[in-house]
Amino acid sequence: MTTEINVAPPAAPAPPVTPPRKVRQSAHWFDLRKDIPAWGYKTLTVVSFLALFSLWAWLSHQDFVNKIFLPQPEKVWTTFVQLLDDDNMWTDIKVSFIRVTAGFLLSAVLALPIGLLLGSYKIAESVVQPLAEFIRYVPVPALIPMLMLLFGIGELAKIMLIFIGTFFQMVLMVADEVRRVPYELLQVSYTMGAKRGEIVSKVLLKAAMPGIFDVMRLCNGWAWTYLVVAELIAANEGMGYRILKFSRFLQTPKIFVYLILLGVIGLTIDILLRRINARLFQWADTTKR
Q1: Which of the chain's termini has less CB crowding within 10 Å, N or C?
Q2: Distance between CA 238 and CA 244 in Å, rounded?
């Protein structure tokens, strides 16, 4: 009787383990929509401003550049120091800030509930959104004669121009933020017995508030861009009015001072609103925009 012995073939040697490739530490700097270190963000921000300033300084000292149209930085600084003692500059800043803030707040107070309705109900969207889309393409400066006829040449006309320039954009953007709320939240709310009005006020509005706050921040910047146009309406003071007055006499250094002040004011408000948004809505992705 022959006994067969099955001998297993020797196991194949395991393939060599390839060590993981080392990813360069700087690779994540170029990843799509990924954060970079805070120190790097701040450094690049400062570098961008210094690069722009350096380009301005270099160009303004070249012989082929007319100093009337591009004044040198030191000339602008000297003009700024002189204007610090001029009460007109501080009055212009105060008046323009009040005009922009009044027009923006009026726009926000009306645009928020209307945008919420558009984003919540298709019937409201079908009635209001096409009109808003139509009107927002009308150039705001073209409305100056109509505003003067309706509101005169006082402060109300200027405020209404800023209001019109931001209101229709804000309504549409608020509605879009409401539509971004996941529909699953509505289904869960219905399951828990919430009524339609409660879902709109306690689910849709609260879930969309981080994005709506960001919309307000963007529209506030647009409100400042309409300042010069608004102060075409029989203004005697204001930053936009003063820039137009300086341009008539080719006082370019003063124009640069006012333009830089506008940029500083706008950037300061933007940073402040970003920080408020991040503090109020720490759970939201919109704070990273």
Answers
A1: N
A2: 10
DSSP state, residue 21: P
Alpha-carbon gap, residue 36 to 196, rounded angstroms: 42
283 pLDDT higher than 80: no
Here the tokens at position 217 are: 């921040």
Containing 69, the helix (H) or strand (E) segment is none
Comparing 73-82, 123-132, 192-201, which segment has the lowest mean pLDDT?
Answer: 192-201
Report whether 174 contacts 115 (CB < 8 A): yes
Would the pLDDT of 163 be above 90? Answer: yes
In this predicted structure, what is the pLDDT of residue 17?
55
Residue 21, pLDDT above cutoff 90: no
Give CA–CA dist 72/56, Å, rounded: 8
Q: Is the whole model's pTM more than 0.70, yes or no?
A: yes
> At the top level of CATH, which class does the domain 72-288 belong to?
mainly alpha
State how far the alpha carbon of 34 is from the alpha carbons of 24, 27, 31, 94, 157, in Å.
Answer: 15, 11, 6, 40, 45
124-128: long-range contacts, CB 8 A cutoff, minimum separation 24? 125/175, 128/171
> In this prediction, what percent of the chain has a pLDDT beyond 70?
89
For residue 154, give the DSSP letter.
S
